[in-house]
Amino acid sequence: MLNTRVAIFTGGELHEEYIEKLNADDILIGADYGAWYLVNQQLKPTIAVGDFDSVSEEQYKRIEEYSHQVVRCDPIDKDLSDTELALKYAYSFHPSEIVIFGATGSRLDHTLANIQILSKTLKQGVRCSIINRNNLITATDSRITLHKSEYDYISLIPLTTEVRGIDLDGFMYPLSGAVLSIGDSLGISNQIVNSTGTIRIKEGILLVIQSKD
User: How sure is the predictor about 75, in pLDDT bands with cuts at 50, 70 and 90?
Assistant: First the structure.
């Protein structure tokens, strides 16, 4: 579907102001508690998916009532996290973009797993971002252009053992043919100095984190 955007709400930190970041025609998918968040905000999930072990039975009944489709799975006999299940259903809409809210929070294991999921979305050929109050997180295995925005800082972190052939244009600290290995801090806290900044890589997967204080 041309220019279709899917917005996934999953079970991490969720804030009311996230609703302001939605487009009117977004397809909404709620994963576990994320489905309750949408219903509680008087929005109808296109799909509510997960084991729903983070909601009460009363909340689950409301999710069933207000969602167009509910997919409930066994909390023990499943191989995918609720977020990855939501992504599976998001792909079925053949979107041009996916945004994920509630993917970060106090559970560091869930946060790291959700960030690493971004590498899988690249294989699907779908642009995908994780958004929270202070960060916009995405990944690239080729080229990405960023626009100067509310996010003051850009950090580059390798998701593969090495990322090779990194070129940065339009940044305060440019790079040409650089290599980043896991554990390197060279790519932390750069800034866009022009209206746009372009990142190109030849090999590997690079995590791109846009942040504000």
Answer: low
pTM: 0.94
If 0-12 CB within 10 Å is exposed, 13-18 middle and 19+ buried, where does residue 124 land? middle
Q: Rg for the chain (alpha carbons), in Å?
A: 18
Which of 105, 104, 87 minimizes the C-alpha distance to 8?
87
What tokens does 64 get? Answer: 């069933």
Please tell me the distance from the alpha carbon of residue 123 to that of residue 105, in angstroms, as a whole number: 26
Mutual orientation of helices 33-40 and 57-66 as an angle, nearest 10°? 70
Residues 6+ apart with CB under 8 A from 13: 102, 104, 105, 106, 132, 133
Among the listed residues 161, 162, 160, 157, the one whose alpha carbon sits nearest the alpha carbon of residue 199: 157
